[in-house]
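Anyone opening a protein record will find just a pair of labelled lines. A complete record is shown below as an example:
=====
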Amino acid sequence: MHFQQREEGGVQAGTLGARIGGQTLVVQAGGNAAFPAGVVHSWWNAGETLLEFSGRVVPAVDLDQFLQALFAVLNASATNRPSIFYLAHVLWRHRRTQGVVTPPVLIQRILFPVVLLIGHVLGKYKGQCWPGCPETCTGAPFKLRLLKADVRNAPLTLHRRTIGIQKDRASSKTPRSRFLE
């Protein structure tokens, strides 16, 4: 969920499935979708072909940096489970502009600072070579292309960028992304 930003965009190719609040919708190529600020939402490739969704976020704030960091953490996991240390760092860093509903906010407010403290003690955040490091997640301009895995419920959108999402039924791995210049 984006606290201050409204997302909007059009499906260039494929089929977009979306859940906005309690409503589920399907948008075919040529259609548009809007996600209001402050409303829990998710979207995914609801078809069998590549989904291309081109959209924008108003105001942009830091969604590009958030998504870049989030996918860096997800992609760094060889076990399909992101490191709690790096995930907590990204979510805590963007807690004033972006939100997730799981775990509940009260648990996040208690757990994440503890995880961050332990991560600092263990040296998880030294240098700039760790997944989701703020210095390496500078945001736009980039394109995000998800090529592998079932991306059902993958939260994706970029400020004035195109995203391609390809289902891969043969793989059960976490969605992989590649940033293209």
Observations:
- The longest helix spans residues 105-121.
- DSSP finds three helices and nine strands in the chain.
